[in-house]
Amino acid sequence: MSTTATLPAGASAADAPASAPASDAPAGVPAAPRVRGFAYWLAEPAPAAVPLLRKRVRAVLAGWAVRAEVADVLLLAVSELAGNVVQHAAAGGRMRIGLAFDGGWLRLEVADQGAGSPRLPNPAEEVDPDSENGRGLLIVQLLAVEAGGELRFLAGEFGASVCVLLPVA
Known about the structure:
Helix content is 30%, strand content 22%. It is of the alpha+beta class.
């Protein structure tokens, strides 16, 4: 597993580039600080990688002083999404986990080199109530939306990826 490449997370609003968008905070409410940071890991899609990735993400989130309830959503997302890559990735592939913090938003992206594209199942039609599998993406989506964020599916150079965006006020 590759190690993280973390950029300093100590930038303040005064350090933001001139092209940074203005705050969307209502009058009288302080804007979220423009702290920036990035970390990523490359790993073999093996079951042993999942707890190591979760531990590394936890350490980065602690270093960024992310609130526990937001960190918990991202840690569950890392477990579910990396577990999906382990279960569905093509043999010999790699998975990439990226974590970014910028402008009051956290972004977690989990990608694999597989040709398939992830999608949310329709719970009423496709999820067997007795099955132990098939609910991970739905759970991650519900938690992200409940926290004010969203779940996205992307296709890129590395392959298919799932992205979780969460606000951190």
